Amino acid sequence: MSPRRRRAPLLAAPALAVVALVLLPLAYIVLRAAGSGRSWSVLARRQTLDLVLDTSALVGAVTACALLVGVPLAWLVTRTDLPGARVWTILAALPLVIPSYVAALALLGAFGPRGLLQRLLEGAFGTQSLPEIYGFPGAVLALTLSTYPYVFLLAAAALREADPALEEASRGLGRPAFATFLRTTVPSLRPSLAAGGLLVALYTLSDFGAVSLMRYDALTRAIYLRYRALIDRAPAAALALLLVALTLLILVLEARSRGRGRFSRGSPGAARRRTPVALGRWRVPALAYCGLVVYAFLLVPLAVLGYWFANGVSLGRPLGLPWHLAGSSLLVSLAAAAVATAAALPVALLARGHPAPWTRGLERLGYTPNALPGFVIALSLVFFAANYATPLYGTMALLIFAYTVRFFPQALAGASSGLEGVDPRLEEAARGLGRRPARVFGSVTVPLARPGLLAGAALVFLSTMKELPATLLLRPLGFDTLATEIWRFSSLGLYSRAAPPALLLVAVSAPFVYLLVVRPRSAGGTGG
């Protein structure tokens, strides 16, 4: 029996315990739904079918838009002679720090009724109204803004690691660069694109802020309204089960898509410098495309926030930056990133070192919480803490646990990605030299998997910085974050007061986006 298989029983206990804790919210909604006969009658209504169809349409549209934006952008900055590629890489990844509700507010402030664009056109051309942004178009635009960096970062990391021989052979046969990109590069990236599409789809399924502000009837908004309006929460729990069912369907589709593709890496130690694709006469259109993406998804939201901030200053309002709230956000986000990464390791190690249907199934189950809205996870933990763990109720520990459950899939994706880049022969060589398994893990496995682990931790950190519903429901008395401050003022329509914490949130989170973009490059691109 191989050393990996001998370690499987040791990993099984902590992995099973972690997944069981992560699935607590699912257990809660099952108990709620099963406890009332009204819950199943909700599922049979035509309105529920419409909600499922509308949510599915939103998920499909956002995922498609994120792929269409992120993949060409990743290819341009990694494989071509695009001027300023590193700067474009950082700018294109920065929208990851903008919460979906802030993105929706900024888009409404720019393009909505009485927004900045309408005022500008009214003064210049007498335009009285613009096309409606509320509903499906606005929700798709806001969620694409918040999610396309997932696809962009994973595709860029995969392109840096992939063996360029196939593309060079294709171009050597006379195919132009664009045809090579479509027929050779994109199919070889299928596993990474499937992983990026999975993160986008799960984020869209669980989003509440953007769909609420854009007044789009998605399942999350319907669940929230039922939780808020009804004493009996069983119908809302039944709707939450529909989200879980959609999540399982997405996981199956992603697994099948990943299985049909194969990612070709260069051999360790045999990496060679790639010859960038010369853009030639396409250089100007390529720069225009990068500029359009950065303008629409980064500069417009920041410009609207800056306008609100300046407007507040012009009115003489005290608009100091809430640095103490930035400290609170940093504290809980760093703690959640560390805990989630440590919790994801045994699950990822078990799935990698002991491949079997049940270990892969356990790993897949770890992704289900990402489809549940933050307020559902928070309410479930309130229920369990109040009934079975009273000392934890209203504590920081419960809040960090909620963040860990909410964003465990991102830590798991990072850990799995990092471990996939570890050559088993290096571990076997270390064991052959007499090192104990624990020392091999610490001195060989972890350093090689570090880029993926850091990427997962950075994603958890960024997501925690933006998380709103779980923070509102579970925060200890007197504890506030930048996200709660943004929501407090924006819900009152005081956008000039919401702008300073929103801008500070972007500024504090930006270094971690730099970590996501630059560290994988300096580490040779492993993981990502």
How would you sum up this structure, described in words?
The protein is built from 24 helices and no strands. It has 528 residues and is mostly helical. The protein folds into 2 domains: 1-25 and 318-528, MetI-like fold (Orthogonal Bundle), CATH 1.10.3720; 36-263 and 280-316, Orthogonal Bundle (MetI-like fold). Helix 6 packs across helix 8 (136-161) and helix 19 (396-420) packs across helix 21.
Features:
528 residues, mainly alpha, MetI-like fold, 24 helices
Strand and helix map with partners:
Elements: H1 3-22, H2 24-34, H3 38-43, H4 46-79, H5 85-93, H6 100-111, H7 116-125, H8 136-161, H9 165-172, H10 177-188, H11 190-206, H12 209-213, H13 219-229, H14 234-260, H15 283-314, H16 323-353, H17 357-365, H18 374-388, H19 396-420, H20 424-432, H21 437-466, H22 469-474, H23 482-490, H24 495-522
Helix pairs in contact: 1-16, 2-14, 2-18, 4-5, 4-8, 4-11, 6-8, 6-15, 8-11, 9-10, 11-14, 13-14, 15-24, 16-17, 16-19, 16-21, 16-24, 18-19, 19-21, 20-21, 21-24, 23-24
Regions with little confidence, pLDDT below 50 for 5+ residues:
260-271, 522-528
Average pLDDT: 81
Give helix % range.
Answer: over 70%
CATH homologous superfamily heading of the largest domain: MetI-like
Estimated structural class: mainly alpha
Q: How many strands appear in the DSSP assignment?
A: 0
Radius of gyration: 24 Å
CATH class of the largest domain equals: Mainly Alpha
- Compute the separation of the termini in Å: 32 Å
Number of helices: 24
Gross CATH architecture of the largest domain: Orthogonal Bundle
CATH fold name of the largest domain, please?
MetI-like fold
SSE series: HHHHHHHHHHHHHHHHHHHHHHHH
| Share of residues in strands | under 5%
Query: What's the story with the biggest beta sheet?
Result: none
Number of domains: 2
Tell me, briefly, the overall form: globular
